[in-house]
Amino acid sequence: MNSTVSYQEALDNYQANHELPLPEAELSMDELLKQFHPDHYQDSLTTLEIGPNKGGRCHRQLADVLQADALIDEADLAAANVTETDILVIGGGGAGAAAALTAARKGARVILATKLRLGDSNTIMAEGGIQASVDREDSPQAHYQDTMKAGHYQSDRDLVAEMALDGPDVIRWLIQQGMNFDLNEFGDLMTRRPGGATADRVVYYRDYTGLEMMRVLREAVRNCRNITVVDNAPALELLGNESGHCAGAVFYSTTKHLFSIIKAQQVIMATGGIGRMHLNNFPTTNHFGATGDGLVMAYRLGAKLRELDSFQYHPTTVAYPEHLSGSLITEGVRSSGVYLLNAYGERFVDELKPRDQVSAAILRECQEGRGIRVSDQQAGVWLDTPGMELREPGLLEKRFPKLFHMAGRADIDPRTTPMLVYPGLHYQNGGVMIDKFGKTTVPGLYCVGELSGGIHGRNRIMGNALLEIISFGRRAGEDAANYVHGRGHKKTSIEHVSNIRREIVKAGLSMRKKSPLLFPKCAGFVLENEKY
Amino acid sequence: MQPLNQILLSEKARIGADFERYIENGGGQGLQKAFVDPSGIINIIEESGLRGLGGSGFPTHVKWAAVAEQDMLERTVKDKYLICNGNEDEPGTFKDIVLLEETPHQVIEGALITALACNINRIVFYINPDQQNSIDVITQAVGQWEGSELFVKLAETMGQPVKMQVLASSGHYIGGEETAAIETVEGKFPFPRGRPPYPAEFGVYGCPTLVNNVETISNVSHIIKNGAVWYQDLGLGEASGTKLFSLSGDVLSPGIYELPMGTTLEELIFEYGGGMLQGKEFKAVFTGGPSNTLLTKRDLDVPLDFESVKARRSSLGTGAMIVVSEGSGIVKKVSEYVNFFAHSSCGQCPPCKTGTYYIAMLLDKIDTGQGRQADLEQLINLCEILPGSGRCALIDGAVKVLDSSLYHFMGEYAQALKD
Amino acid sequence: MIESPKDTQVEVTINGKKIVAPASLSAIQAVWHAGYSRVEGVGCLEGVCGSCSVMVRRQDDKEVNTELGCQTFIEEGMEIIFLGFPTPTHQTYQLADIQTSWDVQGQFHQIFPEAGNCRACGGCNRSCPKGIEVENGVRLATKGKFREAGDLFVECVMCNLCMTNCPERIAPNHVGLFSRRVNAYFHIRPSNLINRLEQIRQGKLTVNKI
């Protein structure tokens, strides 16, 4: 960090502002990203040497896990308990819940297995809201175009179009599950603008949209007779059948210390993101379980992935105090008009540009000496909440209770003191390739939610993630439920693991690393099989 | 052998609501004597060494004095209350019901003498609603007293009428706690109150209130009639009086045994209780209603009186002795009792209600073979943190019995684990 | 580095183990800091998932409180115990089984019959780590005031501490969630959304994949 201004000094010089002008952009968007966005860091990329994406670009740390050895052998499965069902959903966040509910209501028997508890996810932490083109002046077409543009036109057109058209019905479906949204005095959905969009399109519930959504979905899942929830059961490996069709998965119970096998006719994976891998040493907004397990398992079974070199860094995560490092402050705060200021109290970027640009701009300020320094390793810029309070008193507290709660833990009142923010690893733009039903290139395997790729291109807009999980979760659940009436699999195995091992050896890669990671290193987890 | 069922459970006493016979058999003489010198009653009780027989073992005269000494001048309401506590809901305790149902007049006479000693004008017989017989009998007996000459003389001596009331309690276990009983008398849910203020100062509707157990009260008329020394001599060693022991569990003849205070545990079980069931070895005793520490094999020789049992780091409590033989598992029994406490917790204090929820859940897990080392450690940790955290002693009692069982029978717990 | 009083080292006892760690850490962070493994009762680490309930006793204090482990800063002499997530409550229901909004109150008493037995012990309020007026919420729901009841539970993270604390087995947090859900299910009918749905249904809005 080259910042010259210390936290205390910057705080002393800080003044809350009414209106402030925006400076001229010095660099073009492409230049800004190329010079400062972590996706372009020279030494963080590599080329995959094994698997379906062999020869493709991939982030180095992600390549490490994709090309690592498995955690288990066939021998470990000897005494494992076996359960059979129609549809296995792996992942207890919004996408998994939506998939399970949809499939179960079509009559399928569903087992939903989750690494932690049902609801422990990135979904529950989401604050900003969910996109749906409901305003009169807005349209699915505009939604489609904004998404394509923000993603730098790298997205799969079909997927984006389907999702944009799904938007309004997704909201209706969520309301039918019992989810509340903020309404205006006429009972209409309130909307706000996500960075990079041409219309106000995000519908929300305070800054608790994720909590409200997950709370409701979790209750609906628990009350659904056709869904059995298996908690505290991280998946270690998928099962394949004799023709390469996905046939279920192997699980480990962190409470009983035993392996178990769940066989299913169709598998829907919704294992979420990769934040806890701390790519490029960035702090993360993600929940404890976000270690990219699903990517590894899908890749091993032969699923093609995409955009493995593109990750979203959320511009405003807390940089000080340290114990709150990485905590998310919603983009909604910027949508309401809050500025970003450098150490000299100057604005330096249009706060409502897409996230990759805003993050790159913040990184630029910090690297070029205009950031605010808290230590040799940590710097940041101001999120000018007191300025907002001057312009519209009371708005912050009403709309962003979660922000207040969090700031309170740091003994900061956002109405009088600005928060120090810095980009944090937030979202995986790419992932497993899917079609409009969520189907991967592996028959019998669906991937939905953050795990899947192709919707966001190289940069996601706020609100499209919550939309994606419900839109595609429902699609996968609906589609998978059509294929549960066969005779089941003749033979299931983890033979594909052996194939991967052969590839690793032939490519001269290390067999010492193991994946999926399951838990962040700080948690000190050790896989112990107590067989009896 | 010690003399059995001498005083409170003598044949002369067990005549039900028959006032005439009661007087014929010598009843009422205690009250007569009390009329002579009301201000000296408390001294006699002090000399006798009477202690609370409903679980506390607290010196009775101290409680009485606290109420008797209350300054009534400044108060607008001039009432004082005696709650005769027959809530009896502890597992393994079933003595008060016998006294209420079979010797109602003994109880009532004791209450009247207590009222005279402390200048109490309102007596409430507070009885578990599951004991409808007791309620009926006491109600009948109260009516008989109200029509008697003795009752008129009482009013004259006190200078004010005494009002007696029979009240069914809520049926909640927690209603046995003093301040919870007061809440019920006031028509409310039996939530224990925080102390201070103490009931002697601020009880029913703010009036000075004395809460005494049925058995304690039952002794009063005998003490006044026969004298403090007589009562002292009834007990063995330093102890005074007799005690109704509720014996249950793995014995041949469970039941109530009135025996001198200081009778040993061995005598109670083997000479009166018929010995161990099916000849199995003695293992342990849950004392006093299971909110206490256990007594084990090496305690068979303990004299059953307050001080001697205390010296063995346990408590006489209500005198309930729940016997466990080698054929019975301690873990299961403790689990049963902790579940009882979890169910009975009134809900006011999270460490008690949620605390008992968790220790009950962990015990169930271990008892059904699903427990692991981590669960046992969790139990031990909870025993560390919970005592003293509630408004009343329920959580303390639950932890005490668990803690004691872990101390004496850790091997059984360890064996029940999966790992 | 900015020095903060929260960086001083303190000694605490967590799950029976003595740990020394900086005072700026939460209970969960302290466990990891000391090198112990912990993967249960950990979730979002920011106070919205309800997975990390703990019992806390502060030094020289008789009181034991129930809090969220990720939101509790350690203090000298603190004793902390992690509570496992309790088994879910017994009441179940389907929103779709409630025919009309006229039937909600009647159905509520079938689904949550215990709610009418609330003995006003206040234990749910005291056990709530978010300071929600839980008991009041149950009272309002019992009277059919679901909107008001639901509004009290905005911040509820469904940790189920009030559920374990209820002597009448009411499951107050689920009553609160029910209240919130029926409000949305029956009463949220935004005209902008409905209008948009109708347009899409009629095929008036399509996406040209340019």
Query: Which range does the strand content of chain C fall in?
Result: 5-15%
CATH class of the largest domain in chain C: Mainly Alpha
Structural class of chain C: alpha+beta
* Counted beta strands of chain B: 9
Count of alpha and pi helical runs of chain C: 8
The CA-CA distance between the termini of chain C, in Å, is 52 Å
Number of strands of chain C: 5
* Architecture (CATH level 2) name of the largest domain in chain C: Orthogonal Bundle
Number of helices of chain B: 17
For this structure, the quaternary state is: heterotrimer
CATH topology of the largest domain in chain C: Fumarate Reductase Iron-sulfur Protein, Chain B, domain 2
Share of β-strand residues of chain B: 5-15%
Biggest sheet of chain C, in brief?
A: 5 strands, mixed
Encode the helix/strand succession of chain B as letters.
Answer: HHHHEHHEHHEHEHHEEHEEHEHHHH
What key attributes describe this structure?
heterotrimer; B: 419 residues; alpha/beta; four-stranded parallel β-sheet; 12% strand; C: alpha+beta; Ubiquitin-like (UB roll); Fumarate Reductase Iron-sulfur Protein, Chain B, domain 2; 2 domains; five-stranded mixed β-sheet
Overview in brief:
The complex is a heterotrimer of chains A (532), B (419) and C (210). Chain A is an alpha/beta fold and 532 residues long. Chain A has 15 helices and 21 strands.
Map the helices and strands.
The complex is a heterotrimer of chains A (532), B (419) and C (210).
Chain A: E1 5-6, H1 7-13, H2 29-36, E2 45-47, E3 57-59, H3 60-66, E4 81-90, H4 94-105, E5 110-113, E6 130-131, H5 140-150, H6 157-177, E7 202-203, H7 209-222, E8 227-230, E9 235-241, E10 246-253, E11 258-269, H8 293-301, E12 305-306, E13 311-318, H9 332-335, E14 339-341, H10 355-367, E15 372-373, E16 379-384, H11 385-391, H12 395-399, H13 401-409, E17 419-428, E18 431-433, E19 445-447, E20 452-453, H14 464-480, E21 492-493, H15 495-506
Chain B: H1 19-24, H2 29-36, H3 41-48, H4 60-68, E1 81-86, H5 96-102, H6 104-118, E2 122-127, H7 132-146, H8 149-158, E3 163-168, H9 178-185, E4 209-213, H10 214-226, H11 228-234, E5 242-249, E6 255-260, H12 265-272, E7 282-287, E8 294-296, H13 306-311, E9 320-325, H14 330-344, H15 350-367, H16 373-385, H17 394-416
Parallel strand pairs in B: 1-2, 1-4, 2-3, 5-9
Antiparallel strand pairs in B: 5-6, 7-8, 7-9
Chain C: E1 9-14, E2 17-22, H1 27-33, E3 53-57, E4 64-68, E5 79-82, H2 104-111, H3 123-127, H4 134-142, H5 146-152, H6 161-165, H7 172-187, H8 191-201
Parallel strand pairs in C: 1-5
Antiparallel strand pairs in C: 1-2, 3-4, 3-5
Helix pairs in contact in C: 4-5, 4-7, 5-7
